[in-house]
Design a protein that fits this description.
Elements: E1 7-8, E2 21-22, H1 37-43, E3 45-46, H2 65-77, H3 83-105, E4 110-113, E5 122-125, E6 128-131, E7 138-141, H4 142-154, H5 158-170, H6 184-201, H7 216-242
Antiparallel strand pairs: 1-6, 2-5, 3-4, 4-7, 5-6
Length: 243
């Protein structure tokens, strides 16, 4: 489906639901997805791949240190105010990039996935839950994408995450590998956003619709560093709860 389609959590795509409400604030029960979340999880990916679709890793912002240094040189030459903040954080950013790449390369469970299952892309209608914004459909690791979705909806609710995992497996999903890397797909998203902002700021890429000005780069760095710590902590807590 294209980004203009609304797809029910169960069943085929449908146009323009009525009385739609975002699940961002959590409108059903104690969790943002309430009683219908297992349907959303089951619709998040399909167990086959398509070589014509973009691998999710193309969006992760995985670049060699030489490329980062070239961006820093360009920013310094232009006296861009975020230059020093990124230079000071670069060792940590590169460490995160290496962990994201290792997590992706270790996974063989590639599937076609919605690619952006976040609370703001799930609408709560009177007739059920609907997924919107299909422009990020691509090849994903089923396990990493599942981890990203559970983190987005249940970072602070391990009981919800456990129940969702059980439902996912009961619906014939493969039991995921839950280790320190389980939540890294969310981190990869932050890394990709940071690299896009940097490249646009030095005119190495065209801006996209979601993008703010380059003053957002220091904030994007902080969000990446924070998200990395939170995702690893959550993954460890979930692994311990499931052991």
């Amino acid at each position: 489906p294209s980004q203009n389609w609304i797809a029910p959590a169960r069943g085929g795509p449908a146009r323009n639901g009525r009385n739609l409400r975002s699940t961002q604030a959590g409108s059903r029960g104690g969790s943002p997805l309430g009683g219908d979340w297992q349907g959303v999880l089951s619709y998040d990916h399909w167990e086959h791949t398509d070589p014509d679709l973009t691998p999710a890793s193309d969006w992760f912002g995985l670049f060699e240190v030489s490329i980062w240094n070239s961006w820093l040189a360009a920013a310094q030459a232009r006296s861009l105010d975020w230059h020093s903040r990124l230079r000071g954080s670069l060792p940590r950013v590169l460490e995160i990039s290496d962990r994201v790449a290792a997590a992706w390369n270790a996974r063989t469970d590639l599937v076609i996935s919605h690619g952006d299952l976040e609370p703001y892309n799930v609408l709560d209608a009177d007739s059920g839950l609907f997924l919107i914004d299909w422009e990020s459909v691509g090849q994903e690791s089923a396990g990493l994408e599942l981890g990203r979705t559970l983190f987005a909806f249940g970072e602070h609710d391990l009981a919800f995450c456990g129940a969702a995992l059980d439902s996912y497996v009961d619906a014939s999903g493969q039991p995921p590998q839950i280790d320190d890397s389980f939540g890294l797909r969310t981190v990869a998203r932050k890394l990709g956003s940071l690299t896009e902002l940097v490249r646009v700021s030095i005119d190495a890429a065209a801006p996209t619709g979601w993008m703010q000005s380059s003053v957002a780069i220091p904030q994007a760095i902080e969000e990446l560093l924070s998200m990395s710590s939170r995702a690893v902590d959550w993954s460890r807590r979930l692994a311990a709860a499931r052991s």
